[in-house]
Specification:
Blueprint lengths: L3 H12 L3 E6 L1 H5 L13 E3 L2 E3 L1 H4 L2 H6 L1 H17 L4 H13 L3 E5 L5 H5 L6 E3 L2 E8 L8 E2 L15 H6 L9 E5 L8 H4 L1 H9 L1 E7 L6 H12 L3 E6 L4 H6 L6 E4 L2 H15 L11
Parallel strand pairs: 1-4, 1-9, 4-5, 9-10, 10-11
Antiparallel strand pairs: 2-3, 6-7, 6-8
Helix pairs in contact: 1-13, 6-13, 10-11
C-alpha cells in the first residue's frame, strides 16, 4: 500500500528533526460508527418541519430555539459517547508517542475520540470544538464544562426535558450554556479553536498527513496551502479523490493513498516506529 519510494521518504522524516502534523476529518470517525455530519443522520425533525444540519448548527438557530438545538446536540453527543476509537485513532496516538514535541494533531472532529485514544490535549487542536463540553452562551466566563453524562444517551428527535434544560444552564450567570462547537455562522478564533496556532504549526511542518477529510471547511484548506507554499510534503489518506490529494501530488515526495485511516495509519505508525532513532544508553550515575 505504501510504495518503497514513499517509505524511504517517511523514514527520512521520522529520523530527522522536522515537524509532523496530522489533519483529520469525519472519515476517520465514520469508521467508529459516527455518521458524517451532512449525512441523513444529521437531519432533525421538530413537529412537521425537518431541519438540515446547516440550519441546526448555527448561532442564529440557537438564539431562536436553544431547546431544539440542544436536543439535536444531545443526541449527537450520545452517539459520540457510545463510539470507541478505532485503529486509525490509535495509530495517530502512537505517532504522537513516537514524535513527542515534533507532533501536532489538528482535528475537525468534535467527538473527542482522538483524546480517548491517547493523544494529549496540549498537542491536539480541536478546531471545531468538542461536543462533550459546553460553555456559557453569554461568555460570562471562558471556562469549559463537561457535558453532564446524565444528559445522554437519548432517543432521536426527543424534545428537551425540563430537567435536562436545568443542567444546561451556566452556574455563574444562570443563562444558557451552549455546545462547545464552531457553528456555521461563526468564525475561527484562537481562544476556542486554535486558528493562529494551526497556521503557525503549518508554517513549520515538514510532513502533513491528511486523513478522512474532503476539504470543505476553511482552516484545513489554509493549513494544507501553507504547508504546500513552504515546500513541505503532504500525504493524503482517503478512499476517494479530493482537493488535498491533488495538492499532495504536487509536493516533494507527496502522495495520495486510497484507503481509510483504520487501514493505512497503523502501517504508517509502524514504519515511523521502525525508523525512529533508538534511545541512547541510560546516563551513568554520578
Amino acid at each position: 500500500m505504501i510504495d518503497p519510494q514513499l517509505q524511504e521518504r517517511l523514514r527520512t522524516v521520522a529520523r530527522g528533526p522536522g515537524r509532523v502534523t496530522v489533519l483529520t476529518g469525519a472519515g476517520i470517525s465514520a469508521e467508529s460508527g459516527i455518521p458524517t455530519f451532512r449525512g441523513p443522520e444529521g437531519y432533525w425533525t421538530v413537529g412537521s418541519r425537518e431541519y438540515h444540519p446547516q440550519e441546526m448548527a448555527t448561532l442564529a438557530m440557537f438564539r431562536q430555539s436553544p431547546e431544539t438545538v440542544w436536543a439535536w446536540y444531545l443526541h449527537r453527543a450520545g452517539v459520540c459517547r457510545a463510539a470507541a476509537p478505532n485503529p486509525g485513532h490509535r495509530a495517530v496516538a502512537r505517532l504522537e508517542a513516537l514524535l513527542g514535541a515534533r507532533f501536532t494533531l489538528i482535528t475537525q472532529n468534535v467527538d473527542g475520540l482522538h483524546l480517548r485514544a491517547g493523544n494529549s490535549p496540549g498537542r491536539t487542536f480541536q478546531i471545531h470544538g468538542n461536543i462533550l463540553f459546553m460553555r456559557c452562551a453569554a461568555a460570562c466566563t471562558p471556562r469549559l464544562r463537561p457535558l453532564p453524562e446524565a444528559l445522554t444517551p437519548r432517543e432521536r428527535h426527543a424534545p428537551l426535558a425540563e430537567r435536562e434544560a436545568h443542567l444546561l444552564r451556566c452556574p455563574d450567570c444562570g443563562g444558557w450554556d451552549r455546545p462547545y462547537v464552531l457553528w456555521f455562522d461563526e468564525c475561527y478564533d484562537e481562544a476556542h479553536f486554535r486558528f493562529d496556532s494551526s497556521l503557525e504549526t503549518a508554517a513549520a511542518t515538514a510532513l502533513l498527513i491528511v486523513v478522512g477529510t474532503s476539504g470543505s471547511t476553511n482552516l484545513p484548506g489554509q493549513v494544507a496551502a501553507t504547508v504546500y507554499r513552504r515546500g513541505g510534503t503532504i500525504l493524503d489518506i482517503n478512499p476517494a479523490d479530493n482537493p488535498f490529494a491533488a495538492l499532495a501530488r504536487h509536493t516533494p515526495g507527496g502522495a495520495a493513498l486510497r484507503g481509510t485511516g483504520a487501514a493505512v495509519l497503523p502501517a504508517l505508525a509502524a514504519l515511523f516506529e521502525e525508523a525512529s532513532p533508538a534511545p541512547g544508553p541510560p546516563a551513568e550515575a554520578s
